[in-house]
Amino acid sequence: MNLDFINFTFLDVLDIILVAVLLYYIYKLLKGTVAINIVIGIALIFLIWKITQALHMEMLSGILGYLLSGGVIALIIVFQQEIRKFLLMIGTTNFSSKRGFLNQIKFLQSEINSEIDIETILKACTSMSKTRTGALLVIEKTNNLDFLVGSGDKMNALVTEAIIESIFYKNSPLHDGATVIRDNYIIATRVVLPVSNSTKIPARFGLRHRAAIGVTEKTDAVCLLVSEETGEISYINNGEFVLYKTPEELFKKLQKDLTA
């Protein structure tokens, strides 16, 4: 086996160090956002591709090469907003001022990490719980839910307590089905969700709970439910009920899961 590729020169070492530094700052920039999972996946594919090239595995390296070439286009599409903000930052930053550049980096990171207003959502659920108003909220994470959104009525409304309560008001034409939230916006109501066929779900839970379990089994979305019979607020993630003791604990669990 030819192992000539193991002989490193100074430029090879410098190249590796610079790439490591670049990846480190990209990681710091994207840490805590859903984008980091995509970047890690692409980095792993690239690493495997380089290894197959070094080992002269022509067929596999060729397939991975084509995959990566198409992945660049997909990457641009997925990160178009972040790329635009980054280029804007580069064009407007005074690099002679280190503090100014670091402030731009922090601003960009906060812009990328689009936070869901968990407090407002939980306030709405608590209010509906007191009146035993049935509700089903689906919060999108990294998996796009457009394949479900098409089954309902599209919206583009900022998340507020009043809007959530008005959607699920019993006389509202929008209260049936699920409401989907993306980037702190309600993007659809009356959405039909896939129902779980699991036999482990207790019989006391109805279609609303089965639908919440079904969508969290098939995607990484999380669901909040308000029971129409008991007023109980349920939190479902990864196809399972997440137990909590206090509203504060529920807030922390939801906050952790949405930034994971």
Give the topology, please:
Blueprint: H1 10-30, H2 35-54, H3 58-78, H4 80-92, H5 98-112, H6 118-130, E1 135-139, H7 146-149, E2 153-158, H8 161-168, E3 178-182, E4 185-191, H9 207-218, E5 222-226, E6 233-237, E7 240-241, H10 247-258
Parallel strand pairs: 1-3
Antiparallel strand pairs: 1-5, 2-4, 3-4, 5-6, 6-7
> Any idea of the CATH topology of the largest domain?
YojJ-like (1
Helix and strand sequence:
HHHHHHEHEHEEHEEEH
Query: Which class best fits the helix and strand makeup?
Result: alpha+beta
The rough form would be described as: elongated
User: Radius of gyration over alpha carbons?
Assistant: 23 Å
N→C terminal distance: 43 Å
**CATH architecture annotation of the largest domain:** 3-Layer(aba) Sandwich
Gist of the model:
The chain has ten helices and seven strands. The protein is of the alpha+beta class and 260 residues long. It has a seven-stranded mixed β-sheet with strand order 2-4-3-1-5-6-7, sandwiched between helices.
Report on the architecture of this protein.
This protein has 260 residues and is α+β, with helices and mostly antiparallel strands. The chain folds into two domains: 10-92, no CATH class; 115-259, YojJ-like (1. It contains ten helices and seven strands. It has a seven-stranded mixed beta sheet with strand order 2-4-3-1-5-6-7, with helices on both faces. α2 runs antiparallel to α3 (58-78) and α6 (118-130) packs across α8 (161-168). It is elongated, with a radius of gyration of 23 Å. It starts with 9 loop residues before the first helix and ends with a helix. InterPro entries: C-di-AMP_synthase (IPR014046), CdaA (IPR034701), CdaA_N (IPR045585), DisA (IPR050338), DNA_integrity_DisA_N_sf (IPR036888), DNA_integrity_scan_DisA_N (IPR003390). It catalyses: 2 ATP = 3',3'-c-di-AMP + 2 diphosphate.
